[in-house]
Amino acid sequence: QVQLVESGGGLVQAGGSLRLSCAASGTIVSINAMGWYRQAPGMQRELVATITSGGYTNYANSVKGRFTISRDNAKNTVYLQTDSLRPEDTAVYYCRARGVITTTAIRDYWGQGTQVTVSS
Predict the structure, then answer these.
(1) CA-to-CA separations, 48 to 30, 42, 61, 75, in angstroms, rounded
(2) Residues 6+ apart with CB under 8 A from 56
(3) β-strand partners of 2
(4) I want to staple 85 with a disulfide (CB 3.0 to 4.6 A). Which of 6, 51, 76, 118 is the partner?
(5) Which 3 state secondary structure label does DSSP give 75?
(6) What pLDDT, in 10s, does the model give residues 72-94?
(7) pLDDT of res. 1
């Protein structure tokens, strides 16, 4: 009923940029918060950045000043602009939508993930 579809990952050299997008589709009334998480091989999934429907943002210390999260509420879409990428940013990036209100339920959803690889 609700799907999150990510796009924009890829291979980039250190110092480069990528723009990730995540669009939520379905019978959505509203979404409380949206965000990005990442998981590197052998590591736990970690928060990268989140944004509420009102525009309040939160970032992991490791990406502050390099990544920017934004959101289009009308399109139920969240973006992550990643600049000054480093090899340690290499991971699968997952989109998460929290407090998704549909006509039948309120729950959280995850996207399928998009690979970001930064070469040195």
Answers:
(1) 22, 17, 9, 22
(2) none
(3) none
(4) 118
(5) helix
(6) 999 999 999 999 999 999 999 99
(7) 86
